[in-house]
Design a protein that fits this description.
The structure is a homodimer.
Chain A: H1 11-24, H2 37-44, H3 48-60, E1 64-67, E2 71-74, H4 78-102, H5 107-115
Antiparallel strand pairs in A: 1-2
The structure holds a DNA duplex.
Chain lengths: 120, 120
DNA sequence: CAAGCTGTACTACTTCACTAATACAATAAT
DNA sequence: ATTATTGTATTAGTGAAGTAGTACAGCTTG
């Protein structure tokens, strides 16, 4: 369970994204217990409160749930994570097109530009 | 000269981008005098200091230059703005691919996803 | 029961980007 | 020369995001 976070972006949403992704890819299974807030915080090199906040958000969306004294668990309803991930993907792409538009690129030009992209 | 800025992103780089774009598209011509820092600030609904900072950055890159008591002017060397805009475009795209990768999408999958995108 | 895990809550501190206000310097127009 | 407009500089304040530290509550295991 590696946590590669991009400093410079807000950490909270990144953790949310990562959890959703791992659920969708099957790395986290329904009902599975996650590592504790503190442990994740250390592994990710982040403050426990930030992890807590992220998990709270995911709980509100029904993707995770917590049991006091026990830990955090993956919800049985994977569809929620799947849908959330799709929304995130969409939002990020929307933002990308929006930014490129302010630089004077039409959607079609953006598509062409992306197509010829090669590099990681 | 409209200034549509996306709150939520840092304003400084957005102003820099916009100026570069306008130079490249020919809206701002070499040697042309820009509106004053204060006027731009009002038009963009932003603080004059932020505009000043942005222009300073562009001056450092040789894209703009200032004359005390006179105003800000577009440099004769448009290639600099062109190159800067290309760099920005590239960086934004790089970031986009990077974000999508953390969501589990390979570059090829990203390309497919972008291709079928329709919406502004 | 006691110890050691958990989640939860709260307050204070730091940093960054931007805002706000003011003052000063240089140029042009009158 | 005076006035207005410009760039420039400085200081202080604000809000968001994250850090840091501490404390409390509930569950499990020995």
């Amino acid at each position: 369970m590696e946590w590669i976070l991009d400093k410079g972006r807000a950490i909270c949403p990144q953790i949310c994204e990562q959890v959703c992704k791992r659920i969708v890819t099957g790395e986290f299974k329904p009902g599975e217990k996650l590592l504790s807030v503190r442990v994740v915080a250390v592994k990710a090199g982040v403050n426990p409160n930030t992890v807590q906040k992220s998990f709270d958000i995911l709980e509100q969306k029904g993707i995770l749930f917590s049991q006091r004294g026990l830990g955090w668990f993956v919800s049985e309803n994977i569809a929620l994570a799947k849908s959330e991930l799709a929304t995130i993907t969409r939002t990020i792409t929307q933002d990308y097109f929006s930014k490129m538009k302010t630089l004077g690129m039409s959607p079609d030009e953006v598509k062409q530009y992306v197509l010829q992209w090669n590099e990681s």
